[in-house]
Amino acid sequence: MSDTLHTLYQVVLDRRAHPQEGSYTCYLFDKGLDKILKKVGEECAETIIAAKNDVPSDTVGEISDLIYHLMVMMAEKGIPLDDVLSELDRRAKKIGNLKQMRKTDKET
What we know:
- The chain is mostly helical.
- It has a single domain (2-79), classed as Helix Hairpins (Orthogonal Bundle), CATH 1.10.287.
- It has helices at 2-17, 24-31, 33-52, 56-77, 81-92, 98-107.
- The protein is globular, with a radius of gyration of 16 Å.
């Protein structure tokens, strides 16, 4: 899966470095951070609604849209995908009870 994420992120970075006419990704970069963040918010809300409506295929589509828009935001802010994946790896290795996990979450 991380290969797919890396490939998608590289496409996003390439569109930022080499704009192509008609590219939605380039449109987002051209409109700037406010537009990108608006789209992240919209996709987040749409993901929540799709999950509530309990239609798995719609939920998968909205999650995919959200991940894509998050990647555009990451590229705009200069956040490498590997930093996010490393943080997820670190969190996956946490072992402990719920009380300890809540304490750790408050500290991070």
